[in-house]
């Protein structure tokens, strides 16, 4: 991470799963100050005690409230904007709340960054923003549009505003893997929505890597995704069960929940068409044209792309592959140790 030499950094939503991992990584450098803007004073207090590091300054506030954003932004050089409403079902029931936090809140953060002369803002988005069908994804898609519009208007004069999109973070709070682990621990059947549903699988560290990559590589308005493998939910359930020594688990089929898709897309085919392949990452440059389309034409031709980049067509892991991946995750290693299973035995 090269942030260290470059002055104070703000992480919005800094007490969440991503935010706190990012903060810990930044603290491992010689960074001078990290500010956290978040709503939950109890989470801040817990984190303050855990970190016990005077370089971290906590701001209680809300991205919806532009004054609290301005106070937190004043004097920082870089922003990682992770604050969001991200639960699919709750946003389905309260979509207006998703608009206030994910769309208006992001606009507040970027505007404050522009006014305060901040150098870069990395905005975190999700695969659910691609061809969105649920309120969470729609609000994140709008956040992306707001970020790109700011980048287009300000060009090289404003902060470098960029976007990262990632898929499911394995073992994140409230996600399916901890649910399966708890069901196995208590001897309950595993609840599977649709056995054929697929999801990209990414670790928390890989999501932080992606954001760091955007931070170091972005030009205004760029969008980055990290390539990732995927599995079906059924194989994920079987892999978690096998790790805990259950070879033929009882599975209860729940059916698709509110706003869920059969598969997720990290890039639409239109984005894939103009994406640059950076090895582990794709970069999609901003469409910086104005509305005077006749002023623009492309020289040379790119190969026509006829597919999206989805959890159905990316590298597919089978049960053995998912098990191997899960074994690399520290929370799974801890769960196995607590259950008295060695990683070798579980594999
Ligand atoms: O009891 C359950 C719960 C979930 N699932 C399935 O497991 C997969 C993953 O579900 P979950 O871990 O709840 O993640 P998603 O609903 O895909 O959404 C998560 O991943 C997004 C990124 O794609 C984040 O933005 C969201 O906050 C986060 O909830 C999905 O196919 C679900 O249908 C089950 O089979 N059984």
Automatic annotation (TrEMBL):
Keywords: Isomerase, Lipopolysaccharide biosynthesis. It catalyses: UDP-alpha-D-glucose = UDP-alpha-D-galactose. GO terms for biological process: lipopolysaccharide biosynthetic process. Its EC number is 5.1.3.2. One of its GO terms (molecular function) is UDP-glucose 4-epimerase activity. Belongs to the polysaccharide synthase family. This is UDP-glucose 4-epimerase. It comes from Nocardioides szechwanensis. The lineage of its organism: Bacteria, Bacillati, Actinomycetota, Actinomycetes, Propionibacteriales.
């Amino acid at each position: 991470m090269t942030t260290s030499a470059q002055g104070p950094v703000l992480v919005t939503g800094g007490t969440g799963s991503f935010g706190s991992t990012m903060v810990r990584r930044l603290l491992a450098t010689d960074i001078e100050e990290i500010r956290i803007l978040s709503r939950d004073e109890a989470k801040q207090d817990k984190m303050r005690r855990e970190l016990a590091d005077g370089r971290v300054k906590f701001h209680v506030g809300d991205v919806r409230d532009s004054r609290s954003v301005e106070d937190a932004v004043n004097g920082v050089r870089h922003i990682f904007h992770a604050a969001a409403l991200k639960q699919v079902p709750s946003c389905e029931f309260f979509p207006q709340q998703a608009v206030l936090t994910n769309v208006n809140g992001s606009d507040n953060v970027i505007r404050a960054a522009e006014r305060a002369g901040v150098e870069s803002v990395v905005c975190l988005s999700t695969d659910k923003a691609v061809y969105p069908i649920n309120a969470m994804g729609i609000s994140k898609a709008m956040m992306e549009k707001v970020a790109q519009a700011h980048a287009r208007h300000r060009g090289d004069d404003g902060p470098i505003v960029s976007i990262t999109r990632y898929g499911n973070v394995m073992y994140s709070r409230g996600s399916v893997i901890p649910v399966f682990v708890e069901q196995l621990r208590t001897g309950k059947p595993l609840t599977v929505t649709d056995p054929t549903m697929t999801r990209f699988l990414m670790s928390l560290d890989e999501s932080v890597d992606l954001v760091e990559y955007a931070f170091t590589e972005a030009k205004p308005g760029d969008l980055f995704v990290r390539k990732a493998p995927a599995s079906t939910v059924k194989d994920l359930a079987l892999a978690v069960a096998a790790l805990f020594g259950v070879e033929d688990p009882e599975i209860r089929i729940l059916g698709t929940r509110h706003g869920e898709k059969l598969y997720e897309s990290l890039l639409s085919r239109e984005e894939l068409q103009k994406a640059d392949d950076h090895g582990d990452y794709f970069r999609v440059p901003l469409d910086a044209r104005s509305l005077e389309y006749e002023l623009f034409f492309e020289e040379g031709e790119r190969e026509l792309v006829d597919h999206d980049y989805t959890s159905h067509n990316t590298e597919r892991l089978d049960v053995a592959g998912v098990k191997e991946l899960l074994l690399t995750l520290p929370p799974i290693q801890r769960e196995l140790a607590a259950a008295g299973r060695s990683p070798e035995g579980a594999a």
